[in-house]
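Q: Could you fold this chain for me?
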Amino acid sequence: MHGNAIIDAVAHNSSSGQPLSHNGNVKDIRARAGEPAETADLGVDSWALALTPRLAQFAAVARHEHVTRAAHELGMPQSTLSRAIVRLEADLGVALFARRGRALSLTPAGRAFLASTERALLDVERATESVRADTDPTAGKVAFGFLHTMGSETVPGLIRTFRADHPRVRFQLVQNYGEAMIERLRAGDLDLCLTSPVPDYPDLVARRLDEQKLRLVVPDDHPLAARKRVRLAEAAGELFVTLEPGYGLRRITDALCAEAGFTPKIAFEGEEAETLRGLVAAGLGVALLPPPAVPRPGVAELTVTAPRAVREIGLAWMDGHPDTPPVAAFKKFLLGRRGKLIPR
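A: Sure. Below is the predicted structure, expressed as structure tokens.
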């Protein structure tokens, strides 16, 4: 899947641009590109001082679009939360919600305000996690990205083993393809990622950890299905089902086929290895894939003798980016598993 399986807070990228007034003073909260960040003014007419206690309440109501459910989540009386939202709108002079009985929906102004609110809350969460991690190396959070094909067996096993010695460390897990994870690293959304091929960029540090054999997967009634081994050139006339362009495994497939002397004829493109196996089982083509966590009926998986069909798995992180103690501990743990990362 292109989407991310994320366990933790998520920030939305949009901004308000609406000026606010308080106690007769107009404060422009729009960020000016290229200007240095301003320090917070927490005087008696400060918006930060006035609104901060209510931002989480507003975000909860916006998330549920229902005051009662939001109040239950926050552990506060519904009437108290309802009055707080009304006061917030009155202070801002803007309707953040449209009311439909007990249900609420965000107005355009509410959606803009929510985007800035979630960024502010996420910044507070990150700052808190950073401080906690600095003072308590046994706790904290690791934002960890990995390939879809490593999500069913490899990564759960790694985290289980690591948490045996670090039980209080939490993980924000992101499944995606390689290039997307690199962009998430650069954006600061990830601390570490397991990816393939091993990236080679000047702003990243990458270490090869292991390699994984790729197999030629064919339908179980295919003429090659009775074989144990095959040269990839023997599949030159076949239709291939592959991952979409941009996926590391797609680049590896194209490169191996070129080394075998042919360009694969692509019948279908997908986003997950198990989807491709299903297409192969349906007789729609053949595929080069890593071994499955659980054998899939309807297909035969053949060892490729030539060319050498493997993909390298590497760990990547931003060069010069300081690690919190839990990130440093998990990085050390992963680097210590060179050559034994992938279950055999």
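A (continued): The chain has nine helices and 15 strands.
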